[in-house]
Amino acid sequence: MRTYLITLVGLLFVLFSYAAAYDPLDPNGNITIKWDVMSWTPDGYVAVVTMNNFQMYRHIMSPGWTLGWTWAKKEVIWTMIGAQATEQGDCSKFKGNIPHCCKKTPTVVDMLPGVPYNQQFTNCCKGGVLASWGQDPQSSVSAFQVSVGQAGTTNKTVKLPKNFTLLGPGPGYTCSPAKIVPPTKFFTPDLRRKTQALMTWNVTCTYSQFVAQKHPKCCVSLSTFYNETITSCPSCACGCENKHKCIKSDSKLLSMVGVNTPRKDNAPLLQCTQHMCPVRIHWHVKLNYKEYWRVKITLTNFNYRVNYTQWTLVAQHPNLNNVTQVFSFDYKPLVPYQLINDTGMFYGIKFYNDLLMEAGPAGNVQSEVLLQKDKDTFTLKQGWAFPRKVYFNGDECMIPPPDAYPYLPNLAHQNLVAFSTLFCSMLLILLVLF
Ligand SMILES: *[C@@H]1O[C@H](CO)[C@@H](O)[C@H](O)[C@H]1NC(C)=O
Ligand SMILES: *[C@@H]1O[C@H](CO)[C@@H](O)[C@H](O)[C@H]1NC(C)=O
Ligand SMILES: *[C@@H]1O[C@H](CO)[C@@H](O)[C@H](O)[C@H]1NC(C)=O
Ligand SMILES: *[C@@H]1O[C@H](CO)[C@@H](O)[C@H](O)[C@H]1NC(C)=O
Ligand SMILES: *[C@@H]1O[C@H](CO)[C@@H](O)[C@H](O)[C@H]1NC(C)=O
Ligand SMILES: *[C@@H]1O[C@H](CO)[C@@H](O)[C@H](O)[C@H]1NC(C)=O
Ligand SMILES: *[C@@H]1O[C@H](CO)[C@@H](O)[C@H](O)[C@H]1NC(C)=O
Ligand SMILES: CC(=O)N[C@H]1CO[C@H](CO)[C@@H](O)[C@@H]1O
């Protein structure tokens, strides 16, 4: 009965949290795409397109972003610097000068690092990788230049592109319509003069895990020093539809050359587990000192086809307001409302463990966190020491239901057991009597 109730409440909670595009731990998180018209041309304009990732802990990792839109009229792209359209489309109407892209709905991707100098643009050419704002604000921007033809040539006749789509590397983002905003002002390199765009419009894209995938992408397992039980991730936490495609960690297939080469469609190659998640976060309550307590966090990759670069882990726990030391990860408190300080992001140290390697012996990273006890609230009872929410790379992970937590061997729990035994026997007596 209790189990059912908790599961039901948990399920409702999960459903509810997936349906909302709004992320309570990062209420202002978005990616903005800004078009600055820098000059008019005889048949159109030259614009600088800048993408800013304002999300605290959600980055776009390799193979990077893909940006699409629909032209409002018969616009074409004459040239592009720092990015390229994936398809040229039908340019058969053009003689002499052939446009870069004639498609009504261009699809644009970033260039790879190391393209020739004359094809580069400031903040371009990172293979579409956008760091999260919380981790590396300098690398959270991407830009390219586009020269548009057959377009309006004044701020009255230009028609804004429509139906922006942002993929990165999978679905999940929904973009607003473009909106004209006050023109961006730029400083000249010597900072002594300001210039401004001839016209600017913005698009805002927000992420929803519900749009991205119907199942979570990660799960949490728990253990403690005071109870031997290891609470594993919930079964099929990430969906078991593809269970037949998973491979055992000792499979001979794994020695085949190219088996772990990333696929164009990002199809994973998962190690067989009972949870079928690509990533598991293990939270171990390790030690209880007088003034402090210590947690060990381990991230394990079960996907043979992904190296997670610049991974992020977000955890919510009431004691994160008194983090004393974080060993071998970087840590940053997230204070979305400036009121409750119970959430923080962990990420790898650059060039040390900011890469969570593909599944296998090297596919894990770990850290220990030392927290100072808040005497009024600290307890090992009722699973208080476990995280309330966990996100990996910006996706919420499934946490086991409270009744599966390892319990502190204490009276309260025994009482509960005793009570339910009593309840059952009473029921039995009633059944026997009537
Ligand atoms: C996008 O994010 C920025 C930075 O957090 C914020 O200032 C802005 O209001 C957000 N825009 C929308 C439409 O939410
Ligand atoms: C437009 O986007 C830029 C970032 O790309 C942001 O700084 C600016 O505040 C946005 N303007 C509006 C009005 O949202
Ligand atoms: C268009 O340009 C005129 C001046 O040339 C200016 O007054 C007007 O505010 C501009 N409109 C927009 C939407 O930028
Ligand atoms: C918007 O773009 C998407 C994907 O490119 C496409 O499926 C959809 O039909 C487009 N919608 C409109 C109104 O053009
Ligand atoms: C992950 O990185 C290692 C070392 O850089 C490389 O050998 C391996 O092929 C990469 N795996 C994937 C799936 O990209
Ligand atoms: C939040 O907690 C961290 C310690 O975990 C502390 O460094 C930070 O100053 C706190 N921030 C606020 C706004 O209380
Ligand atoms: C450890 O936790 C498990 C799972 O909640 C529980 O069944 C068990 O009784 C606990 N062990 C002890 C020694 O209390
Ligand atoms: C023991 C201790 O340092 N407690 C502090 C935990 O953090 C809160 C708010 O950040 C402080 O008010 C406590 O004093």
Automatic annotation (TrEMBL):
Compartment(s) of residence: Cell membrane
Domain COBRA C-terminal: 217-406
Span of the signal peptide: 1-21
Mode of membrane association: Lipid-anchor; GPI-anchor
Keywords in alphabetical order: Glycoprotein, GPI-anchor, Lipoprotein, Membrane, Signal, Transmembrane, Transmembrane helix
One of the record's GO cellular component terms: plasma membrane
GO terms, biological process: cellulose microfibril organization; plant-type cell wall cellulose biosynthetic process
Transmembrane segments: 416-433
InterPro entries: COB_C, COBRA_pln
Family from the record: Belongs to the COBRA family.
Protein name per the record: COBRA-like protein
